[in-house]
């Protein structure tokens, strides 16, 4: 007797201990695996504890009602939809189920953050970007006081998560280098708290003046550090509602700085290399610059 001779329910139970990525690959091995992958049992373990509330919030913002969509979809369809990402909060947040690790990744757009002087077109420009995870990025033209901050209420399963900012720096040789420079490092702060009184915080600096020339005009990720989501009293796997406070600061007003692009803040499981990648790439039109803000 070989593995393919087992009942479909048994094969589905075995597949449920793998990952969504493995399940889709196993469906191509033989007809027995393909039949087993179509059973809901094979996909139930992939779903996080808060998947129903996340799907309801995402689908409620669409034309079709969430209850109707949930009844018409199998567990496989729900998992595959979540691996592509659920948009929440009118498109300012993204909830992603990672295909290779079964972990949960939360992404917050810069458009949902408090950006000092962000509504003044002399200092900041909000640009459409095909390489953004949300389609819009914040472009710092020129400013003395740089501050991006806010609080983010979200749910996460217990565990360790890495806070990652997605940034891009323009080439200082392409603009007025004497005016738009970075003499001091940026300070990144992340802290998280929950209703149980459990807190976790991390802080790190990034010196933009030390970025190699080959890193200009390309998006890169800056990991601030790891935060811990402690398990609740009920179970060790149930997602918890947490409040994440974040900030980027460089408030030395003795000089002007600019040329920074900010896309989003991501919380993903520590040690996970699976990133939430945009589908398209920019045409690099940002290299064709106009009048740089107040100058």
From TrEMBL:
Domain annotation F-box: ranges: 1-46
A Pfam family annotated for this UniProt entry: PP2
PANTHER family, A to Z: F-BOX DOMAIN CONTAINING PROTEIN, F-BOX PROTEIN PP2-A15
CDD domains (alphabetical): F-box_AtSKIP3-like
The species this protein was found in: Sphagnum troendelagicum
Name this protein carries in UniProt: F-box domain-containing protein
SUPFAM superfamilies: F-box domain
InterPro entries documented for this protein: F-box-like_dom_sf, F-box_dom, PP2-like
């Amino acid at each position: 007797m070989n593995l393919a001779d087992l009942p479909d329910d048994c094969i589905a139970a075995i597949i449920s201990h793998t990952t969504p990525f493995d399940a889709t690959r196993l469906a191509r091995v033989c007809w027995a695996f393909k039949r087993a992958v179509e059973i809901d049992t094979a996909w139930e373990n992939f779903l996080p504890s808060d998947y129903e509330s996340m799907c309801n919030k995402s689908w409620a913002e669409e034309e079709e009602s969430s209850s109707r969509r949930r009844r018409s979809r199998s567990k496989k369809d729900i998992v595959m939809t979540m691996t592509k990402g659920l948009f929440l909060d009118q498109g300012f947040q993204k909830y992603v189920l990672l295909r290779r690790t079964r972990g949960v990744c939360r992404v917050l757009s810069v458009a949902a953050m408090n950006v000092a002087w962000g509504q003044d077109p002399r200092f900041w420009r909000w640009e459409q970007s095909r390489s953004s995870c949300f389609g819009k990025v914040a472009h710092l033209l020129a400013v003395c006081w740089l501050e991006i901050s806010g609080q983010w209420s979200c749910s996460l399963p217990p565990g360790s998560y890495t806070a990652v900012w997605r940034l891009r720096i323009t080439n200082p040789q392409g603009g007025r280098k004497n005016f738009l420079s970075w003499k001091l490092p940026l300070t990144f702060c992340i802290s998280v708290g929950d209703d149980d009184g459990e807190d976790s915080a991390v802080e790190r600096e990034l010196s933009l003046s030390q970025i190699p020339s080959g890193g200009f005009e390309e998006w890169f990720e800056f990991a601030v550090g790891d935060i811990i989501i402690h398990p609740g009293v009920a179970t060790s796997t149930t997602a918890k509602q947490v409040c994440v406070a974040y900030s980027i600061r460089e408030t030395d007003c003795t000089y002007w700085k600019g040329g920074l692009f900010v896309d989003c803040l991501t919380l993903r499981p520590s040690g996970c290399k699976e990133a939430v990648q945009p589908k398209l790439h920019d045409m690099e039109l940002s290299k064709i610059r106009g009048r740089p803000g107040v100058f």
